[in-house]
């Protein structure tokens, strides 16, 4: 058993900390999930100033008790932290019983490296008793020690006419998206490992651990070589429509197997499926999701790509948006892409409280009026509900490209 009491002053602040603390003042159970090595245990240690027992189900003795006598495990303390609970999903039923007997805010903090709501073996969702929070890899601003995602909240809080001034006053230093994508957001390679070869070694070890241990806890995979080939195929199509039949043909797998394995990748916070914006005014819309990855450096390693491209800048922006979305308490934003059958496309659509923010991502250093053509089409299609449109590029200038369309450097926002 570990007693949590001290906060490590050298740890980078995380954007999710405030949101977890807020919901823990209301809900008896807080479930913090996310991919392994994103910093869930560290976040919990920082969050809880009071002493409380911490038990990890990676510990064989703890795991055995959770399987055979979960009520006795919970009896070890009135307020507990239980780590890696996806290893024993049946433990959630015992948590439910304990909460129903005595309900108090923040009684149990659970962490896990899988999305419990997507796991087939989990029958207990703790509905009405738990708040589910997701810790993604570090954002660029978390790496810089700022402890938050990008400027998305400011864009929703200010009218479009003020966006240029708001972003211009940010004080951010120019950044190279290629370096940021190559570093990724897992705390160890992003912060502690400056040498690219060291990061490659860490990422290879992460993949092996994921394939050989974590994945097997979710479902039995009889052919890890084929599974890895599927991961490579997905990452070579980063930012594209997720076509399961096409993936199956390319890697020589039946479509049901592809579907099951993609679900496992999503449940373990590796694959990110971005849904299509579904409000159809006058155009026929594409409805298939687009595929992204939880971390750009890991994606590049899996794909065998040494130099980041435009899809990796897109993924960087989406990663930041995911943190913005999942740190919200109350009016939670939703994330989409928009594409029509005639070829009009917007990379990201952020919807919050009935307002829409459209985002297009380009790797060029200058933004031309023609680059914003699809943003203008989107704005015309959805009218007054579009708060503004943003064209993010790899340059340094902020400039208006038309009514409610602003071009800005990606590092001014992300």
How many alpha or pi helices?
18
Extract low-pLDDT stretches: 1-9
Give the end-to-end Cα distance, rounded to a whole number of Å.
39 Å
Task: Give the class from helix and strand content and strand pairing.
Answer: alpha/beta
Walkthrough of the structure:
With 414 residues, the chain is α/β, with parallel strands linked by helices. Helix content is 40%, strand content 18%. It has 18 helices and 14 strands. It has helices at residues 16-24, 40-47, 60-68, 70-74, 91-101, 140-143, 152-157, 163-168, 177-183, 187-192, 196-218, 224-235, 244-251, 255-267, 296-303, 310-326, 373-382, 410-413; strands spanning 2-4, 29-33, 52-56, 80-83, 108-112, 130-134, 271-274, 290-293, 334-339, 345-352, 355-361, 386-393, 399-402, 405-409. The strands form 3 sheets. Strands 1-3-4-5-2-6 form a 6-stranded mixed sheet, covered by helices on one side. A 6-stranded mixed sheet has the order 9-10-11-12-14-13, with helices on both faces. Helix 5 links the parallel strand 4 (80-83) and strand 5 (108-112). The longest helix has 23 residues, at 196-218. It starts with a strand and ends with a helix.
Protein topology:
Blueprint: E1 2-4, H1 16-24, E2 29-33, H2 40-47, E3 52-56, H3 60-68, H4 70-74, E4 80-83, H5 91-101, E5 108-112, E6 130-134, H6 140-143, H7 152-157, H8 163-168, H9 177-183, H10 187-192, H11 196-218, H12 224-235, H13 244-251, H14 255-267, E7 271-274, E8 290-293, H15 296-303, H16 310-326, E9 334-339, E10 345-352, E11 355-361, H17 373-382, E12 386-393, E13 399-402, E14 405-409, H18 410-413
Parallel strand pairs: 2-5, 2-6, 3-4, 4-5, 11-12, 12-14
Antiparallel strand pairs: 1-3, 7-8, 9-10, 10-11, 13-14
Helix pairs in contact: 1-2, 9-16, 11-15, 12-13, 12-15, 13-14
């Amino acid at each position: 058993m570990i007693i949590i009491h001290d906060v490590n002053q050298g740890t980078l602040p995380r954007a999710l900390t405030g949101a977890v603390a807020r919901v823990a003042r209301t809900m008896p159970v807080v479930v913090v999930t996310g991919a392994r090595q994103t910093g869930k245990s560290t976040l919990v240690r920082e969050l809880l100033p009071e002493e409380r027992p911490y038990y990890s189900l990676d510990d064989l003795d703890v795991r055995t008790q959770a399987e055979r006598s979960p009520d006795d495990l919970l009896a070890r303390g009135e307020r507990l932290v239980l780590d890696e609970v996806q290893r024993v999903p049946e433990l959630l039923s015992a948590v439910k019983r304990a909460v129903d007997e005595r309900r108090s805010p923040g009684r149990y903090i659970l962490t896990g490296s899988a999305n419990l709501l997507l796991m087939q073996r989990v029958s207990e969702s703790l509905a009405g008793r738990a708040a589910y929070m997701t810790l993604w890899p570090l954002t660029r601003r978390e790496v810089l020690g700022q402890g938050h995602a990008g400027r998305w909240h400011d864009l929703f809080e200010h009218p479009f006419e003020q966006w240029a001034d708001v972003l211009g006053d940010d004080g951010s230093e120019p950044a190279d998206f290629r370096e940021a994508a190559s570093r990724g957001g897992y705390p160890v390679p992003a912060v502690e490992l400056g040498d690219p070869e060291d990061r490659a070694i860490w990422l290879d070890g992460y993949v092996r651990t994921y394939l050989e241990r974590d994945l097997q806890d979710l479902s039995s995979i009889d052919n890890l070589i084929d599974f890895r080939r599927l991961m490579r195929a997905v990452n070579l199509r980063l930012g594209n429509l997720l076509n399961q039949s096409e993936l199956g043909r390319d890697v020589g797998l039946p479509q049901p197997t592809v579907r099951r394995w993609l679900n496992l990748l999503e449940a373990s916070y590796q694959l990110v499926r971005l849904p299509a914006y579904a409000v159809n005014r006058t155009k026929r819309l594409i409805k298939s999701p687009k595929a992204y990855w939880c971390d750009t450096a890991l994606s590049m390693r899996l794909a065998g790509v040494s130099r980041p491209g435009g899809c990796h800048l897109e993924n960087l922006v989406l990663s930041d948006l995911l943190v913005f979305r999942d740190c919200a308490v109350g009016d939670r934003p939703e994330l989409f892409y928009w594409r029509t059958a005639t070829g009009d496309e917007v990379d990201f659509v952020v919807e919050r409280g009935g307002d829409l923010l459209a985002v297009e991502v380009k790797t060029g250093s200058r933004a031309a009026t023609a680059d914003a053509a699809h943003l203008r089409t989107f704005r015309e299609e959805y009218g007054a509900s579009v708060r503004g449109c943003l064209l993010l590029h790899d340059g340094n200038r902020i400039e208006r490209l038309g009514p409610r369309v602003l071009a800005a450097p990606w590092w001014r926002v992300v």
